Structures are given as structure tokens and as C-alpha cells.
Amino acid sequence: MNKQTLDQFRAHARDVRLPEGVRRSVLAEATAEKGRDSRRRGITRRAAVGVGLGALGAAAALLALSIVTRPDERRGGGAADNWFALRAYAEGTSQGSDTVLSSFIGTASSMGGGDDGSWYTTRSIDLACTGSNIASVTCALEGDRVSAVGQPDDPVTEPWVWLDALYNHRDRIGQGEALPSGGDSFTSFTVAFDDLAADEEDFSRQIWVTFPTDDEIEAASTRAHADDSTDEDYARYQALLERRSAGVLAGVTFSLTATFADGSTLTKRYGIAPRDDFDEVCLAHYENPEATIDPQLFVITELDA
């Protein structure tokens, strides 16, 4: 990120204030999350929604989406004022040139095995942006492992990645799932600025990864689900699925395109990779079910910066 964009982001961020009602909700959800049992067995495909970042992280993501700046009427909203930044990148911890440790992608919100012997994880993604004169933001996945059809047919013999949007109001329609409007697919979606808050309320935006089994995973799963298994056994099983999933994600590029009020566009592309001490940090997280905030497991790099 160039210095001008970062300075603009900081200037806007100074004006952000957390409303008292939201602050109380964040604290209440964080307290409730602490008491929940993280040892989830037998999770099936599409059975869990949006708990990967934890209640505190999800509330923070909602707040972030709510502060994407409107076109600046005081300055006329001209093309010279068009800019945007991915909030998770701007707020990340620098790891060197154009690379930051970031909460852009969370820990797995659900994980498990399919009937064909494959495995999967789902993760929440924080696509909150800030900027000036933004009309809409498009997220797209790029790479050889991106599936244009979503969940591939069984059996899964190669790893695949895709986007999904799970409907949050399961009591309202059908089986509790619906796709948002706006030309969404399994490789990209677009959200208009005026619809950001409603989109966050109605849908859990996630990235899915599926991958074939191997001997190490089979052994870890058998041990974790044995009658005499320990919490440590299950933590190692979860951390191993995280590691396999992270390796697949490392081959994916995220593309974010802002369309501005004047019709012009700006695209930024981000590569992701597991942090150097991924295995240690991830295992420590699963060994501590009382943790209320998920660790940052990935670094992201702004490409062609």
C-alpha cells in the first residue's frame, strides 16, 4: 500500500466511533463465546455458519463494513479523490515489503470429512474496505484450484477452492439457504455500497476448501474419534486439517475491484500464505478451548504494489 492511501485510511479511521449499543453487544457476544465448547465432532458439509472469527471478530467485521465511506460531497467526489483500501491489509502487522500478518481470513469455522473420504474446511473472509466515492466492491478468486461449480463431484481426487454465501436466517425460507442477487458465482461476487450492511446481516461470506485424504489425516481422525481420545488428540486432528487447507489456499489469489461513483475502477490483488509458525500457533489455539479471539494464521501480500 502506498503512503498516500495509508494516510487517507488513517485520516478516515480517526473519525470512527463505536456506538454504545454495538460496544455492549460485542462485549456480550465475546463473553458468551468464551463458554462454548469448541470440540465439535461429526460436522457435516454446510452444517455450520460463520463462527470462525468468533463473536468478537464477526461483530468487528460488521462494524468495519458499516464505515466504508460515502462519496465525499464536500469535495465534489471527483476522480482525483477515488481510492480504496482493504481494511484487513491496512490494519495488519508488517512482515516486510507489502506483506502483513492479517485477520483477512479466519480460522476454520467448520471442518470435517465427506462420504467419499475427502475433507473440507470453511473460513470467514473479512472484505471490509474503506475509501472514497466507492459504489461497489467485487471479490474474485484466481488460480488453478478455483472451482467454478462449487462443490466438485465425488470422489474428490484434487484440492479445490470456491466462494459461498450461506443464508443467516434459517427460519425464513426453505432449507435455510439462499443466494444473494448481483451476479454471484462460486468464483466472485459484487456488493453495492448501499447494500453492504444488509449483505452482512443476511449472508455469511465464506471460502470453502476441499482436499483428498491421506494417511496422516486418516490416522489423526481415527485417534481423535476413538473412545479413549483426549482433547490433545482432537486438537492435533483439527490443526492438521487447518494445515492442509492452508496449503491449498496458498495457491489462490484474491482480487478486489472497487467501482467508483464516476464509473472508473481500481483493482488490487492479494496473495496469501500461512505464517511461518502456523503449526505451533494453530495447535495452541485448538488446545485452548477458552480462547475468545482467533489467532491470525495468514500473511497477505499486496501484489504488483
Report on the architecture of this protein:
- The chain has one domain.
- The longest helix is centred in the last third of the chain and has 19 residues, at 231-249.
- Helix 2 (20-34) packs antiparallel against helix 3 (54-66), helix 6 runs antiparallel to helix 7 (231-249) and helix 7 (231-249) packs across helix 8 (278-286).
- The radius of gyration is 20 Å and the shape is globular.
- The protein has helices spanning 3-13, 20-34, 54-66, 87-90, 196-202, 215-224, 231-249, 278-286; strands spanning 83-86, 93-96, 99-102, 105-113, 119-125, 129-132, 134-142, 160-167, 188-192, 203-211, 253-260, 265-274, 298-303.
- The chain starts with a helix and ends with a strand.
- Strand 11 (253-260) and strand 12 (265-274) form a beta hairpin.
- The protein is 29% helix and 29% strand.
- By secondary structure, the chain is an alpha+beta fold.
Biggest sheet architecture: 7 strands, antiparallel
Rg (C-alpha, Å): 20 Å
Number of self-contained structural domains: 1
Strand content: 25-35%
**What's the tally of helices?**
8
Number of strands: 13
List low-pLDDT spans: 9-76
The geometry reads as: globular
- Distance between the ends: 6 Å
Walk across the major sheet and give the strand order: 2-3-13-12-11-7-9
* Structural class by sheet pairing and helices: alpha+beta
**Helix content class:** 25-40%
Secondary-structure element order, N to C: HHHEHEEEEEEEEHEHHEEHE
- Arithmetic mean pLDDT: 76
